[in-house]
Amino acid sequence: QKEVEQNSGPLSVPEGAIASLNCTYSDRGSQSFFWYRQYSGKSPELIMSIYSNGDKEDGRFTAQLNKASQYVSLLIRDSQPSDSATYLCAVGPQGGSEKLVFGKGTKLTVNP
Amino acid sequence: EAGVAQSPRYKIIEKRQSVAFWCNPISGHATLYWYQQILGQGPKLLIQFQNNGVVDDSQLPKDRFSAERLKGVDSTLKIQPAKLEDSAVYLCASRPGRNHPKNIQYFGAGTRLSVL
To answer: Scanning A25, A37, A61, B48, which has its CA 20 to 30 A from the CA of A79?
Structure first.
Protein backbone atom coordinates (compact mmCIF):
# COMPACT_ATOMS: atom_id res chain seq x y z
CA GLN A 1 0.00 0.00 0.00
CA LYS A 2 1.59 3.23 -1.16
CA GLU A 3 1.30 5.94 1.46
CA VAL A 4 1.91 9.64 1.65
CA GLU A 5 2.11 11.16 5.10
CA GLN A 6 1.66 14.79 6.02
CA ASN A 7 1.29 16.58 9.32
CA SER A 8 -2.39 17.54 9.26
CA GLY A 9 -1.73 20.67 11.28
CA PRO A 10 -3.16 23.16 11.59
CA LEU A 11 0.02 25.13 11.00
CA SER A 12 -0.23 28.76 11.96
CA VAL A 13 2.36 31.38 10.99
CA PRO A 14 2.39 35.19 11.14
CA GLU A 15 2.24 37.22 7.97
CA GLY A 16 5.69 37.62 6.43
CA ALA A 17 7.10 34.47 8.02
CA ILE A 18 8.31 31.31 6.30
CA ALA A 19 5.85 28.42 6.31
CA SER A 20 7.38 24.95 6.10
CA LEU A 21 5.27 22.00 5.01
CA ASN A 22 6.57 18.44 5.05
CA CYS A 23 5.67 15.17 3.39
CA THR A 24 7.07 11.63 3.47
CA TYR A 25 6.22 8.78 1.12
CA SER A 26 6.56 5.03 1.29
CA ASP A 27 7.14 3.99 -2.33
CA ARG A 28 10.86 4.20 -3.16
CA GLY A 29 10.03 3.94 -6.86
CA SER A 30 8.20 7.26 -6.87
CA GLN A 31 9.61 9.72 -9.36
CA SER A 32 7.24 12.68 -9.49
CA PHE A 33 6.17 14.93 -6.67
CA PHE A 34 3.58 17.65 -6.53
CA TRP A 35 2.20 20.24 -4.17
CA TYR A 36 -1.41 21.26 -4.61
CA ARG A 37 -3.14 24.12 -2.83
CA GLN A 38 -6.80 23.70 -1.94
CA TYR A 39 -8.88 26.55 -0.63
CA SER A 40 -11.90 25.59 1.45
CA GLY A 41 -14.68 24.32 -0.79
CA LYS A 42 -12.54 24.57 -3.92
CA SER A 43 -10.68 22.10 -6.10
CA PRO A 44 -6.95 21.38 -5.79
CA GLU A 45 -4.66 23.68 -7.76
CA LEU A 46 -1.11 22.69 -8.68
CA ILE A 47 1.51 25.09 -7.35
CA MET A 48 4.76 23.13 -7.61
CA SER A 49 6.14 20.00 -9.21
CA ILE A 50 9.58 18.49 -8.62
CA TYR A 51 11.27 15.45 -10.11
CA SER A 52 14.95 15.65 -9.11
CA ASN A 53 16.73 15.80 -5.78
CA GLY A 54 17.42 19.30 -4.54
CA ASP A 55 15.52 22.55 -4.52
CA LYS A 56 13.17 24.11 -7.06
CA GLU A 57 12.12 27.70 -6.64
CA ASP A 58 9.13 29.50 -8.14
CA GLY A 59 8.47 32.95 -6.76
CA ARG A 60 7.80 32.68 -3.04
CA PHE A 61 7.57 28.88 -3.20
CA THR A 62 10.45 26.43 -2.91
CA ALA A 63 10.02 22.67 -3.19
CA GLN A 64 12.73 20.43 -1.77
CA LEU A 65 13.16 16.75 -2.59
CA ASN A 66 15.34 14.11 -0.94
CA LYS A 67 14.66 10.73 -2.51
CA ALA A 68 17.09 8.91 -0.22
CA SER A 69 15.09 10.04 2.78
CA GLN A 70 11.78 9.78 0.89
CA TYR A 71 11.00 13.31 1.91
CA VAL A 72 9.60 16.31 0.09
CA SER A 73 8.88 19.73 1.50
CA LEU A 74 7.38 23.06 0.50
CA LEU A 75 8.60 26.39 1.82
CA ILE A 76 6.50 29.50 1.44
CA ARG A 77 8.46 32.69 1.99
CA ASP A 78 6.88 36.00 3.00
CA SER A 79 3.62 34.20 3.81
CA GLN A 80 0.45 36.12 3.05
CA PRO A 81 -3.07 35.68 4.44
CA SER A 82 -4.08 34.60 0.93
CA ASP A 83 -1.79 31.58 1.36
CA SER A 84 -4.16 30.24 4.01
CA ALA A 85 -5.35 26.94 2.58
CA THR A 86 -4.81 23.20 2.79
CA TYR A 87 -1.66 22.01 1.03
CA LEU A 88 -1.77 18.54 -0.46
CA CYS A 89 1.34 16.53 -1.21
CA ALA A 90 0.94 14.12 -4.12
CA VAL A 91 3.36 11.46 -5.27
CA GLY A 92 3.42 9.70 -8.60
CA PRO A 93 5.38 7.12 -10.56
CA GLN A 94 8.00 7.71 -13.21
CA GLY A 95 6.78 9.60 -16.22
CA GLY A 96 4.70 12.28 -14.64
CA SER A 97 1.35 12.48 -12.95
CA GLU A 98 -0.30 9.34 -14.34
CA LYS A 99 -1.58 8.09 -11.02
CA LEU A 100 -1.14 10.20 -7.93
CA VAL A 101 -1.33 9.21 -4.30
CA PHE A 102 -2.30 12.16 -2.11
CA GLY A 103 -1.57 12.88 1.51
CA LYS A 104 -4.30 14.11 3.80
CA GLY A 105 -3.09 17.67 3.54
CA THR A 106 -1.74 20.27 5.94
CA LYS A 107 -3.98 23.18 6.81
CA LEU A 108 -2.02 26.43 6.86
CA THR A 109 -3.28 29.63 8.44
CA VAL A 110 -1.37 32.86 7.92
CA ASN A 111 -2.31 35.43 10.54
CA PRO A 112 -2.26 39.15 9.60
CA GLU B 1 -8.82 27.35 -22.50
CA ALA B 2 -11.90 26.06 -20.68
CA GLY B 3 -11.27 24.03 -17.55
CA VAL B 4 -12.68 20.70 -16.39
CA ALA B 5 -16.45 21.02 -16.09
CA GLN B 6 -18.46 19.08 -13.55
CA SER B 7 -22.12 18.97 -12.67
CA PRO B 8 -24.04 19.16 -10.49
CA ARG B 9 -22.07 21.17 -7.92
CA TYR B 10 -24.14 19.89 -5.03
CA LYS B 11 -26.38 16.90 -4.51
CA ILE B 12 -28.35 15.75 -1.49
CA ILE B 13 -29.92 12.30 -1.52
CA GLU B 14 -31.18 9.74 0.92
CA LYS B 15 -29.36 6.49 1.48
CA ARG B 16 -30.19 3.73 -0.95
CA GLN B 17 -31.01 6.25 -3.67
CA SER B 18 -29.02 6.54 -6.89
CA VAL B 19 -26.98 9.48 -8.10
CA ALA B 20 -24.91 10.34 -11.15
CA PHE B 21 -22.17 12.88 -11.72
CA TRP B 22 -20.98 14.26 -15.02
CA CYS B 23 -17.55 15.45 -16.12
CA ASN B 24 -16.34 17.15 -19.29
CA PRO B 25 -12.53 17.24 -19.39
CA ILE B 26 -10.34 19.86 -21.01
CA SER B 27 -10.52 19.51 -24.77
CA GLY B 28 -7.95 17.07 -26.10
CA HIS B 29 -7.06 15.55 -22.75
CA ALA B 30 -6.78 11.80 -23.15
CA THR B 31 -6.68 10.80 -19.51
CA LEU B 32 -9.56 11.33 -17.11
CA TYR B 33 -9.69 10.60 -13.40
CA TRP B 34 -12.43 10.40 -10.80
CA TYR B 35 -11.43 11.00 -7.20
CA GLN B 36 -13.34 10.81 -3.94
CA GLN B 37 -12.38 13.33 -1.27
CA ILE B 38 -13.87 12.77 2.14
CA LEU B 39 -13.81 15.77 4.49
CA GLY B 40 -10.38 16.17 6.04
CA GLN B 41 -8.74 13.68 3.67
CA GLY B 42 -6.78 13.92 0.47
CA PRO B 43 -8.35 12.86 -2.83
CA LYS B 44 -8.48 9.10 -3.38
CA LEU B 45 -8.42 7.78 -6.92
CA LEU B 46 -11.52 5.82 -7.88
CA ILE B 47 -10.97 5.22 -11.57
CA GLN B 48 -8.64 6.31 -14.38
CA PHE B 49 -9.57 6.31 -18.07
CA GLN B 50 -7.24 6.55 -21.04
CA ASN B 51 -9.48 7.69 -23.88
CA ASN B 52 -12.51 5.40 -23.43
CA GLY B 53 -10.67 2.53 -21.78
CA VAL B 54 -10.24 1.87 -18.06
CA VAL B 55 -6.61 1.97 -16.91
CA ASP B 56 -7.14 1.54 -13.18
CA ASP B 57 -10.31 0.90 -11.20
CA SER B 58 -8.75 -1.03 -8.34
CA GLN B 59 -10.18 1.29 -5.68
CA LEU B 60 -13.65 1.61 -7.17
CA PRO B 61 -16.32 -0.15 -5.03
CA LYS B 62 -17.74 -1.99 -7.97
CA ASP B 63 -20.75 -3.35 -6.11
CA ARG B 64 -22.22 0.15 -6.04
CA PHE B 65 -20.07 2.46 -8.15
CA SER B 66 -19.83 2.48 -11.91
CA ALA B 67 -18.24 4.83 -14.41
CA GLU B 68 -18.06 5.16 -18.14
CA ARG B 69 -16.39 7.38 -20.68
CA LEU B 70 -18.20 6.79 -23.92
CA LYS B 71 -16.48 8.22 -27.01
CA GLY B 72 -13.44 9.09 -24.90
CA VAL B 73 -14.64 12.56 -23.92
CA ASP B 74 -17.34 13.08 -21.27
CA SER B 75 -17.60 10.75 -18.33
CA THR B 76 -20.26 9.84 -15.80
CA LEU B 77 -19.83 8.34 -12.36
CA LYS B 78 -22.81 6.60 -10.79
CA ILE B 79 -23.54 5.38 -7.29
CA GLN B 80 -26.34 2.88 -6.81
CA PRO B 81 -27.39 2.47 -4.04
CA ALA B 82 -25.75 5.23 -2.02
CA LYS B 83 -24.56 4.74 1.55
CA LEU B 84 -23.98 7.31 4.27
CA GLU B 85 -20.21 6.85 3.93
CA ASP B 86 -20.38 7.98 0.29
CA SER B 87 -20.82 11.57 1.47
CA ALA B 88 -17.82 13.32 -0.05
CA VAL B 89 -16.67 15.60 -2.82
CA TYR B 90 -16.25 13.81 -6.13
CA LEU B 91 -13.51 15.40 -8.18
CA CYS B 92 -12.87 14.90 -11.85
CA ALA B 93 -9.43 15.61 -13.27
CA SER B 94 -7.91 15.39 -16.73
CA ARG B 95 -4.39 15.23 -18.09
CA PRO B 96 -3.12 15.93 -21.60
CA GLY B 97 -0.64 13.15 -22.25
CA ARG B 98 2.97 12.02 -21.83
CA ASN B 99 4.39 14.15 -24.62
CA HIS B 100 2.69 17.35 -23.55
CA PRO B 101 5.01 19.94 -21.98
CA LYS B 102 2.59 20.44 -19.07
CA ASN B 103 1.67 16.85 -18.36
CA ILE B 104 -0.14 17.51 -15.11
CA GLN B 105 -3.60 16.85 -13.75
CA TYR B 106 -6.16 19.63 -13.86
CA PHE B 107 -9.08 19.40 -11.46
CA GLY B 108 -12.70 20.38 -11.83
CA ALA B 109 -14.64 22.17 -9.11
CA GLY B 110 -16.13 18.90 -7.85
CA THR B 111 -19.56 17.67 -6.85
CA ARG B 112 -20.35 17.73 -3.15
CA LEU B 113 -22.57 14.76 -2.27
CA SER B 114 -24.47 14.51 0.99
CA VAL B 115 -26.18 11.21 1.75
CA LEU B 116 -28.80 11.47 4.50
So the answer is: A25
Task: Tell me what pLDDT residue B75 has.
Answer: 97
CA-nearest residue to A88 within chain B is B42
Give Cα separations from A19 to A11, B10, B25, B80, B81 (angstroms): 8, 33, 34, 43, 43
d(CA B21, CA B9): 9
Q: Distance from B80 to chain A by nearest Cα, in Å?
A: 25
Q: Which of A104, A52, A35, A47 is nearest to B40 (CA)?
A: A104
Task: Using CA coordinates, name the residue in chain B closest to A95.
Answer: B98
Task: Please check whether residue B77 is in contact with residue B91, taking contact to mean a CB–CB distance below 8 angstroms.
Answer: no
Closest residue to B45, CB basis, from A42, A88, A99: A99
Chain B nearest-CA distance from A109, in A, is 15
Q: Is A102 on the interface with B (CB under 8 A)?
A: yes
CB B25 within 8 A of CB B6: no
Q: Do B42 and A49 touch (CB under 8 A)?
A: no
- Contact between B79 and B18 (Cβ < 8 Å): yes
Predicted local distance difference test score (pLDDT) of residue A96: 57
Across A25-34, A39-48, A71-80, which has the greatest mean pLDDT? A71-80
d(CA A78, CA A100): 29
